[in-house]
Design brief:
The protein has 497 residues and is mainly alpha-helical. The protein is 81% helix and 0% strand. It has two domains: 423 residues, no CATH class; 73 residues, no CATH class. Helix 2 packs antiparallel against helix 10, helix 3 packs antiparallel against helix 4 and helix 7 runs antiparallel to helix 8.
């Protein structure tokens, strides 16, 4: 856990800097500056770019995480692995872009309100597909070199700072909406360019694939991992984006905008899981290579309880302040109130199950993750088709909740049945008890007249009481160690002062 803890700590810090920037931009400024259909447009551009870029990758990210240990060399060239994955990705890109262009008449519905807005910017998605694809290629390459923080900084901090700048320019009326969309797209592609520059400066790569190194057995393994990686990554990204796409398809762009803003608040719970997942997946792959099941079990257990503590704290902060949040973003977003609740619970389930997807992906049973993801995506589509017509955007969130719980426990039971791995112990009962106690107590707090003051007051109470109770009951060894280290640092600073 040493590498994971070190990078996870720095990665989490950068991720939460990104969260603050994202909150200022998406949580505060977007609802005040843009109309709901304009927000829906910007979210849809990203969703389709991510979706088609994942198909274009042809599973190279799975190949990188799972099989890079076999290519690793001391000279830093790694048998031209980056060149090989780039070549595969370019082939996939060509096919993906052709499919995207052919699907225009299906994606843009001329009879739907605001369809012209999406039609006007439809082809902006093509360069976004390219740069999203190669950000993932370069970022995964840095991850397998144990430098996961580089991509996190560019994506979570630099990109969000650029987007914030774009929004401020529009707010000051220095740019119109068309210019804002152009600058927004440039901000989205910036991390890829920065990663490419970093790779060139580091020089820890070769773009000339060493085909002679690839044995027939290794080639067949790469093909197998890649094929299932296509299914797994595409299904996974489809699961992350299908709700907003289906909201736009079944309702309209305005509803997609409302869903986007409320989705953002619930997604805050997943930040620590995404950071740890990026870092731990490489360590888990190395552990599987050496057949170190004890290391994998340790990562599974510690990551699960630590992430659950952070996730529960974030959920408590969100739901106890839900009325304040609605005041913050405006009355037109009130239909999204239960989006935050349903997605928040769904994300808590995901975070409690820790890095189980990475464990399955890097094991010899990696194909099963593809099966689970296909089932998950199919279930999401079916439940969205059922609940969106009944409950609107809250129905999309309810569909995500049901599907994510079923998907999560399918992975849980698989790992338990095959490897006897499971993360839960009595500490989870402590955590749930503490959470319920803190939430019920927060209901008795007086409400401040100003909603911003109330957020700070209520949030501070929850943070202090929750942290003290978690520390005293020793719910998580890792959390206690971090609190002890932080306390020692603060004491040493006061002593020097």
């Amino acid at each position: 856990m040493g590498v994971i803890q070190k990078q996870s700590q720095s990665g989490t810090i950068y991720s939460y800097i990104g969260v603050i920037l994202g909150f200022i931009t998406t949580g505060y400024l977007w609802p005040k500056v843009f109309s709901t259909d304009e927000i829906g447009l910007m979210r849809i551009l990203v969703s389709y770019a991510v979706l088609f870029s994942q198909f274009a990758s042809f599973g190279v990210n799975s190949i990188s995480v799972k099989l890079f240990p076999y290519f690793r060399t001391n000279d830093g060239k790694h048998h031209g692995f980056l060149g090989l994955t780039s070549l595969i990705s370019l082939t996939g890109l060509l096919i993906s872009v052709i499919i995207f262009i052919l699907l225009k008449s299906w994606i843009v519905d001329p009879e739907k309100e605001n369809s012209q807005l999406l039609a006007s910017y439809y082809y902006y998605i093509v360069p976004l597909i390219f740069f999203t694809l190669f950000f993932n290629v370069f970022d995964t390459y840095y991850r397998v070199l144990y430098k996961a923080v580089v991509g996190i900084v560019y994506k979570e901090v630099v990109q969000r700072m650029l987007i914030l700048t774009v929004v401020v320019l529009f707010l000051l009326e220095w740019t119109n909406f068309h210019q804002t969309v152009v600058l927004y797209c440039l901000a989205l592609i910036a991390p890829t360019i920065l990663l490419m520059i970093s790779l060139i400066k580091d020089g820890n790569y070769s773009l000339k694939p060493d085909f002679g190194f690839i044995t027939k057995e290794l080639r067949n393994e790469m093909i197998g991992v890649g094929l299932f990686g296509i299914v797994a990554s595409f299904s996974g990204v489809l699961a992350l984006n299908i709700d907003v796409i289906m909201v736009e398809r079944l309702i309209d762009l305005k509803a997609a905008g409302v869903y986007t803003i409320t989705f953002f608040f619930a997604s805050l719970i997943l930040i620590p899981l995404r950071t740890m997942g990026k870092i731990s997946s490489v360590v888990i792959a190395e552990a599987w290579k050496k057949n170190e099941l004890k290391t994998i079990d340790d990562i599974y257990k510690k990551s699960s309880i630590s992430l659950s503590v952070i996730g529960m704290l974030l959920f408590l902060g969100l739901w106890s302040n839900i009325d304040n949040i609605m005041q913050l973003i405006g009355d037109k977003y009130l239909p999204g109130k239960y989006v935050i609740l349903f997605l928040g619970i769904a994300n808590l389930t995901e975070i409690a199950l820790g890095v189980n997807a990475h464990i399955i992906l890097n094991s010899k049973h990696y194909r099963f993750l593809s099966y689970f993801l296909v089932g998950y995506a199919a279930l999401l589509i079916l439940t969205n088709l059922l609940f969106i017509p009944l409950y609107g955007i809250a129905g999309a969130a309810l569909a995500s909740l049901i599907s994510k719980v079923i998907f999560g426990f399918a992975k849980y039971f698989f790992l338990f049945r095959v490897y006897r791995l499971q993360p839960f112990d009595w500490n989870y009962l402590k955590l749930v008890t503490i959470s319920v106690l803190v939430y019920l107590t927060s209901l008795w707090l007086p409400t401040a007249s100003n909603y911003l003051v109330d957020i700070v007051f209520r949030g501070s109470f929850i943070l202090a009481s929750f942290t003290v109770l978690v520390y005293l009951t020793q719910v998580s060894v890792d959390i206690n160690q971090r609190i002890n280290a932080l306390t020692a640092l603060i004491i040493s600073i006061f002593k020097k002062a």
